[in-house]
Design a protein that fits this description.
12 strands; 4-stranded antiparallel sheet; 7 helices
Length: 280
């Protein structure tokens, strides 16, 4: 899942990358890999490649440097980890999982998150000034138009476990220290026994709408997966924002709705054909 495409631009490169990545993830799941490992792998690949507005493709904030947010959640245990406004880490999602597994906390921020990453051997960017790139489909003019981007992954494994992960560099030219929905468990990311969800879009509106946990509650209350997502998307739109959602249930149902011009997305599953698309 990657939002923010501009109609009329060519996204063949990113679609080809998403196709390869989702097929690799399918192979790993078929081989017995756990959902948590697969969503971490997928999001780390999206962060590292520089094609998307997360990780290497992130843009500087209003103070001129890149701040990164990420979160990850394991459905069966509700274990979760997140990093907020962290700098100079190659894969924020891996650090988020480290927070989940190596501490008693859910979230670390700023300098504390960076120090944790260093202490536990996560990869640090040696030359931040020359590391970041403009991702495919983003121009220098977009930096002043508050374009946004988020990457995410959800998975159901062979044992029935669900997991979700999300990562972003945030809105372009955001205020220093700004945090959106991505690292917030229950807003940008959620996984439980029934559903795994990752959200993207204007984070402030996603937070105010209830985000991922609102979808999970609607689904648990009996709404269909599509209806639950549509209701939250409608609320986000009513509040003035746009968003996209990827979700998978314990029965293997997958939806990828959005209320913006498009969303780079890919999905595959048992009995479900491969889908790779940017627009309708």
């Amino acid at each position: 899942m990657v939002p923010g495409p501009v109609p009329g631009r060519d996204y063949a490169t990113t679609e080809a990358h998403l196709r390869r990545l989702v097929l690799t993830c399918e192979q790993r799941l078929v081989a017995g890999d756990k959902a948590l490992d697969v969503v971490e792998f997928a999001v780390a690949e999206l962060e590292s490649c520089g094609l998307y507005v997360a990780g290497k493709g992130s843009a500087p904030n209003s103070a001129g440097y890149v701040e990164l947010d990420a979160s990850i959640m394991h459905g069966p245990t509700r274990a979760a980890g997140a990093v907020v406004a962290v700098v100079n880490v190659v894969n924020p999602v891996r650090v988020a999982r480290g927070v989940m597994q190596k501490t008693s906390h859910v979230m670390l921020a700023g300098v504390g998150a960076l120090n944790f990453a260093r202490e536990h051997g996560f990869e640090i960017i040696a030359d931040a000034a020359n590391y970041y790139v403009l991702p495919v489909g983003v121009t220098a003019d977009d930096i002043t138009e508050q374009k946004h981007g988020t990457v995410g992954a959800v998975a159901l494994d062979r044992s029935g476990e669900l997991a979700a992960a999300t990562s972003t560099g945030g809105t372009f030219m955001k205020l220093e220290g700004r945090v959106g929905d991505t690292p917030m468990i229950g807003a940008g990311t959620w996984a439980d026994d029934d559903i795994a969800i990752s959200c993207t879009g204007t984070g402030e509106h996603i937070i105010r709408s209830g985000g991922a946990i609102a979808i999970a509650h609607l689904f648990r209350a009996g709404a269909s997966l599509q209806a639950a997502c549509d209701e939250v998307l409608a609320e986000i739109k009513r509040l003035g924002g746009d968003a996209g959602i990827i979700a998978v249930t314990s029965s293997g149902e997958i939806v990828m709705p959005y209320n913006s011009d498009g969303m780079k997305r890919a999905a595959v599953g048992s009995g479900r054909p491969l889908v790779v698309a940017t627009f309708e």
